[in-house]
């Protein structure tokens, strides 16, 4: 499976949009900006906080979750549309300082904006599912999922060791 990444041109436009305050922004885009950028909570870092998908072919996005606290964190992932999206893992435990990759896959479908809600809390439980039997003390972070017809994607470089070695031998 190849992973599709937004083109550098698209990422530059997104950065300009959020960095320059003189641009007119709609109330919905301001809400999205507030949702994506948190300034207080550093117990769980998630990057990137936004994913783009082409509607015609769907795609995949990889994100990293890092426990920045000194306690074990249980994580539960929820999605606004389980018909179009698959996530892995749904539940996980993160030890202090450890990281976990989050994989989001979108099937082809109509253009729309969805979200992943990452619910997390400190726990002593041995299972992430057990930690969420009670929602007391849970925090939330959001990953925006945007599917558009005009998203230009490029294939990410491979990290498969055999193909990297094969390419370097062929170039020599």
From TrEMBL:
Keyword Cytoplasm among record annotations: yes
Keyword Cytoplasm: yes
Keywords: Cytoplasm, Cytoskeleton
Coiled coil region boundaries: none
MSP domain ranges (all copies): 43-172
PANTHER family, per database record: MAJOR SPERM PROTEIN
Function (record text): Central component in molecular interactions underlying sperm crawling. Forms an extensive filament system that extends from sperm villipoda, along the leading edge of the pseudopod.
Protein name: Major sperm protein
Lineage of the species this protein comes from: Eukaryota, Metazoa, Ecdysozoa, Nematoda, Chromadorea
């Amino acid at each position: 499976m190849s992973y599709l990444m937004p083109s550098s041109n698209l990422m530059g436009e997104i950065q300009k949009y959020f960095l320059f305050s003189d641009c007119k922004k709609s109330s919905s885009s301001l809400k999205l900006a507030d949702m994506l950028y948190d300034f207080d909570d550093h117990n769980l870092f998630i990057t990137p906080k936004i994913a783009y998908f082409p509607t015609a072919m769907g795609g995949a996005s990889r994100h990293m979750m890092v426990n920045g606290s000194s306690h074990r964190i249980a994580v539960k992932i929820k999605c606004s549309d389980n018909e179009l999206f698959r996530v892995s893992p749904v539940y996980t435990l993160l030890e202090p300082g450890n990281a976990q990759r989050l994989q989001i896959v979108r099937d082809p479908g109509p253009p729309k904006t969805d979200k992943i809600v990452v619910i997390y809390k400190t726990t002593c439980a041995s299972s992430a599912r057990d930690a969420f039997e009670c929602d007391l003390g849970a925090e939330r972070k959001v990953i925006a999922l945007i599917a558009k017809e005009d998203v230009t994607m490029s294939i990410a470089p491979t990290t498969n060791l055999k193909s990297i070695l094969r390419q370097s031998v062929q170039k020599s």
